[in-house]
TrEMBL record:
UniProt region (Disordered), positions on chain: 1-56
Membrane-spanning parts: 89-110, 116-140
Compositional bias (Low complexity): 26-35, 43-56
Annotated source species: Cephalotrichum gorgonifer
Keywords on record: Membrane, Transmembrane, Transmembrane helix
Lineage of the species this protein comes from: Eukaryota, Fungi, Dikarya, Ascomycota, Pezizomycotina
The protein's name in its UniProt record: Uncharacterized protein
């Protein structure tokens, strides 16, 4: 039987069903984006309650320093100003000269000499008032200068020392403008005292080994200076006289220019703080740690903040 012959019965053979041919490129249905996952309610509440600003970088250091000072048995001197003798001498001498010249010129208005024009007396009265105002301004240059700042220990024994928040008061004394008068004394909490700028200028960052080298260089320079003083005794009076003249010129310069003074605020009142010639504990870093500085953002963690710690 050939391949083209029909089977018995005359019916053609049944064909196998063919599978549909699909195209190799099919278009996928677009996927709908999934909705973003919402945090649980407790997480949202914690995120809303969290502070937006980081804590102060030097807060732990300041807290520890306050606690250390409050637990001492004696007062701690943080700042002591120089005498400012030349500044006061220049202030009072200039003020007395202005007051005296103003008193002399006012006589041309109260008792004018004969033969003067009518406008001479009123003109001299204006000059007298101007000299009195200038003398008052020079006299007030020495007012409000801080004399000493001391940290007072906490009173109350172990109960006060074991409190969660230590209490520390500062005793601030202000020099009197009138000579030979006692200074004015104030006792306030350390949180009520502020400065407009830091006393210590941020210096370059030094490793501990470099800081030790700097300290040794300073000690070596002081030792050489002492040896020079001991081996050159004949010229010592001239050197000391030059240092005295330099100190006098520095006081007069402070009187006329007001240089070398910072601003210390006690409550709402501003006072003058000599930051160039005064003695300060730890070269001023003690006050920088203890007293808040207005205008400096302590919440920003920077290299200078790490240095001050």
């Amino acid at each position: 039987m050939s391949a083209f012959s029909r089977p018995p019965g005359g019916q053609p053979p049944a064909r196998k069903p063919q599978k549909p041919i699909l195209s190799s490129k099919t278009t996928a249905a677009p996927k709908t984006p999934a909705a973003p996952k919402q945090p649980p309610p407790n997480a949202r509440q914690r995120a809303a309650a969290a502070p937006t600003t980081p804590p102060a970088a030097n807060a732990p250091t300041a807290y520890a320093y306050v606690r250390q000072l409050s637990q001492r048995s004696t007062t701690t001197t943080l700042y002591e100003a120089p005498s400012h003798a030349w500044m006061k001498f220049g202030s009072w001498s200039t003020a007395l000269f202005c007051f005296g010249y103003g008193s002399y010129t006012i006589t041309f208005y109260t008792h004018p000499p004969e033969g003067l024009a009518w406008w001479v007396g009123p003109s001299y009265s204006v000059i007298a008032v101007a000299f009195v105002l200038v003398g008052t301004a020079f006299l007030m240059r020495t007012s409000g200068i801080v004399n000493t700042i001391r940290a007072l220990p906490t009173r109350g024994g172990a109960a006060a020392q074991s409190s969660a928040r230590p209490r520390l008061d500062l005793e601030v004394t202000v020099k009197s403008t009138v000579p030979f008068m006692p200074p004015r004394k104030m006792v306030v909490p350390y949180t009520d005292v502020a400065m407009k700028s830091r006393i210590v200028v941020p210096a370059e960052y030094l490793r501990p080994s470099e800081q030790l080298d700097r300290k040794r260089e300073g000690e070596r320079a002081r030792e050489e200076k002492r040896k020079y003083e001991m081996t050159h005794l004949l010229t010592a009076p001239f050197r000391h006289a030059f240092q005295g003249a330099k100190s006098a010129m520095g006081g007069i310069r402070q009187l006329f220019t007001g240089s070398g003074f910072g601003t210390l605020k006690v409550g709402e009142t501003s006072y003058k703080l000599d930051v160039t010639n005064a003695w300060m504990l730890d070269d001023g870093r003690a006050l920088d740690r203890l007293v808040k500085v207005v205008g400096v953002d302590d919440t920003v963690d920077s290299k200078w903040a790490r240095i001050y710690q």
